Amino acid sequence: MLETAHQNGVRQALVTMSLEMNVIDILEQLPRPYFAQIVTANMVTRHKPAPDPYVLALKRLDLPTSGSVAIEDSPAGLRSACDAGLNVIAVPCSGAIAPSDDYQIWETLAARGLPDLVAAGLAVG
């Protein structure tokens, strides 16, 4: 999904509450720099579940909330992305995620692609 989005000009950001020094090592192992922006715990005063990390990512990408999609795996991340006004996809990782009208739940990202992201609210083009 990262590759397909990248090939189609979708600007992507990684929004994580890990520290920047921990994230950089992991990102350097990817085949290319998929993320135009990175927001980490040391870049915001208020962490997830506050909307601040996503607000900062959107500002850095110069994107509106409408037409932007967040993929999250935790309740705190879901609240952060929803409160920032994004279209949100929940992908459970380490535990169940309660259904909500605020987001879609995908059990996995496997076999998902750009058409699925567009259907979830991503504006392309």
From TrEMBL:
Which Pfam families does the record match to this protein?
A: HAD_2
Q: CDD domains under this entry?
A: HAD_BPGM-like
Keyword flag NAD: no
PANTHER family in the record, alphabetically?
FRUCTOSE-1-PHOSPHATE PHOSPHATASE, GLYCEROL-1-PHOSPHATE PHOSPHOHYDROLASE 1-RELATED
Protein name per UniProt: Fructose-1-phosphate phosphatase YqaB
Known Gene3D superfamilies for this protein? HAD superfamily/HAD-like
Q: Which UniProt keywords apply?
A: Hydrolase
Q: One MF term in GO for this entry?
A: sugar-phosphatase activity
Under the heading InterPro entries, the entry gives: HAD-like_sf (IPR036412), HAD-like_SPP (IPR051806), HAD-SF_hydro_IA (IPR006439), HAD_2 (IPR041492), HAD_sf (IPR023214)
Q: Does the keyword tRNA-binding apply?
A: no
Going by the entry's taxonomy, the superkingdom of the source organism is recorded as: Bacteria
> Known EC number(s)?
3.1.3.-
NCBIfam families from the UniProt entry: HAD-SF-IA-v3
